[in-house]
Amino acid sequence: MDNKNQPIIESDSLETPAEIPDQTGVVSAPQTSTAGTIITQAPLPRSDKPSEDKGVKKLLGKLNLYTFLLILVLFILGGISYYAVLQNRKAVQDGTLTTQKLTQDSLDKLASTDTTVGDAKQTLNVESNAIFAGGVIIHGNVDLAGTLKVGGPLSLPGLTVGGTTSLDKAAVKSLTDSGDASFQGKVTIQNGISVTGGGSFSGTLTAGQISADSLLLGKELQLSSHIVTSGGTPGHTNGSALGGGGTASNNGNDTSGTVTINTGNSAPAGCFITLTFVRAYANIPRVIVSPASSTAGGVAYYVNRTTSGFSICTSADAPDNTSGMAFDYIVVG
C-alpha cells in the first residue's frame, strides 16, 4: 500500500503520541521520523480467525487433562480390584477362613438378653461361612439344600425320612418300622429277633437253632440229618397186666420214647402202662409202638389212645416173671 496519500501529522511533543485509529477502525501504531516528526503508520493487518478459536483451544486442553486423570483413576481402581480378587482366590484355595471372635463383654450381653432379629416374614441370608463354637437351638424346621456333614455323633430323638436314605454304618438301640423295610445286603442280628406277625422268606433260611411253638409247613419237610426230639418226660401209671410185683418205666417225651416192662407173678391180659402227655394234643394223635426186644415181640400188644396220653396193653396173658420187655413209641399229632 502506498503511504504517500496519507496525511502526515507533525508534533513537537517528545511524549509518545497516542494511537490514531484509521478510517476502518483499526488502530495504527505511530511512527516517529528522524526529525522528531510523528508519521502515521499503515494500519496493522486484521486477523482472519475469530477470537473464539482461542477459547476452544483452551477448553480442549482442559478436556485432555481431565480425560487423562479419569483414565489414570480407572486404571488404579482396576489394579486394586484385581489384587483383591487374587487375594480372595488365594484364601479360598488355601482353605483359610478369617474368623472374628466375640469379646467376653459381647457374649455377656448376648447371654443376658433375648434379641429377635427380623420377623417370620423376613429371610436372613448369610453369604459367608459361619462357625458356632457353642450349642445351636433351632425352634423351627431346618431345610438343607446341600449336603449335611456331621463330624461327631448325631443324636436324634426321632427321625422321619421321606425319601431314600443311604447309611454306611448305623448303630440303632431301638428301631421301629411302621411300614415295609427292604434290606438289599446281608443282615446280621446278634441278640435275637422277635416277630409278632408273619414272616416270609423266599430264599434259604439258615439257623443254628429254631425254637417255635408251632411250625406250619406248606410243602414237604426235608431233613438232611437226624430227628431228635426233646421235652419233658410224660407221667405214667402201672397197669394190671404187670402181675404181682411187676414194674414199668418210661424214658422219653411226648413225641418219642421207650417203655420197659418187667412182669411179675400171674400176669393177666390188660394194659401194662399208661403214659400221660406233658402237653395234651388238640386231637387224638397217632401213636406208633414197636417191640424193641424179643420177649416183647411175642406179646399180643395193642395201644389205647386219647388226647392226653396212651396205654400199651396186651390181649392175652403176658408171660410171668419176664423182665426187659421194651417197646419204642412215636407220637404224631
SSE arrangement:
Blueprint: E1 20-21, E2 27-28, E3 31-32, E4 38-39, H1 52-94, H2 104-111, E5 235-238, E6 247-252, E7 256-262, E8 270-276, E9 286-291, H3 294-297, E10 301-305, E11 309-314, E12 325-332
Antiparallel strand pairs: 1-2, 3-4, 5-8, 6-7, 7-12, 8-11, 9-12, 10-11
Name the features.
rod-shaped; Immunoglobulin-like; disordered N terminus; 3 helices; 333 residues; alpha+beta; 4-stranded antiparallel β-sheet
* Oligomeric grouping of the chains: single chain
Which value, in Å, is the CA radius of gyration?
63 Å
Broad structural category: alpha+beta
Largest sheet descriptor? 4 strands, antiparallel
- Identify the CATH architecture of the domain at 235-332: Sandwich
CATH fold-level name of the domain at 235-332: Immunoglobulin-like
Question: What is the number of beta strands?
Answer: 12
The largest sheet has its strands arranged as 5-8-11-10
Question: What does this 3D model show about the protein?
Answer:
- The structure is a single chain.
- With 333 residues, the chain is an alpha+beta fold.
- Among the domains are: 1-43, no CATH class; 57-90; 235-332, Immunoglobulin-like.
- Helix content is 17%, strand content 17%.
- It has 3 helices and 12 strands; from the N terminus they run ββββααβββββαβββ.
- The chain has helices at residues 52-94, 104-111, 294-297, and strands spanning 20-21, 27-28, 31-32, 38-39, 235-238, 247-252, 256-262, 270-276, 286-291, 301-305, 309-314, 325-332.
- The strands form 4 sheets. The protein has a 4-stranded antiparallel beta sheet with strand order 5-8-11-10, with no helix packed on it. It has a 4-stranded antiparallel beta sheet with strand order 6-7-12-9. A two-stranded antiparallel ribbon has the order 1-2.
- The chain starts with 19 loop residues before the first strand and ends with a strand.
- The relative contact order is 0.07.
